[in-house]
Amino acid sequence: MNSSILNQLAAASGGAAPAWLQYLPFVAMALIFWFLILRPQMKQQKEHRSKLEAIKRGDEVLTGGGFVGKVVKVDDNYVEVELAKGMVVKAVKSTISDVIPPAGKKPAND
User: Fold this and answer.
1) Of 25, 29, 58, 103, which one's alpha carbon is 20 to 30 angstroms from that of 86?
2) In 3-state terms, what secondary structure has residue 59?
3) Is the dihedral of CA 58, 64, 68, 72 positive or negative?
4) Angstrom distance (rounded) from CA 35 to CA 69
């Protein structure tokens, strides 16, 4: 009895759906993944790379270890950072987390 009802429902539906319709959910998930995760991450990496390329002598930087210091010398791969008066450390340029804006500028919210 059950099989006859299923056969009648299958016959009434008019056949199988197109093949491309089966792949539509996967395409939708890939697009959502791209726009919500990958694209913003790539944009953030690009901004960070541009910050690192723009580092110059006299900038205040935050290292990956949490140290804040002033840039003394910039090389292609390394940055010499003065953490305290007379204490200069050499850091790999890619470990710089952020470039701190100068204290003299007014915050954007005020």
Assistant:
1) 103
2) coil
3) negative
4) 36
Cα distance between residue 4 and residue 2, in whole Å = 5
Question: 62: which residues sit within 8 A by CB, 6+ positions away?
Answer: 68, 96, 97, 98, 99, 100
pLDDT value for 21 = 82
Any idea what DSSP says for residue 30? H
Closest CA to 84 of 68, 65, 63: 68
Ranges of the chain with pLDDT below 70: 1-16, 103-110
Other beta carbons within 10 Å of 32? 10
Does residue 59 contact residue 74 with C-beta atoms inside 8 Å? no
Distance CA 67, CA 83 (A): 7
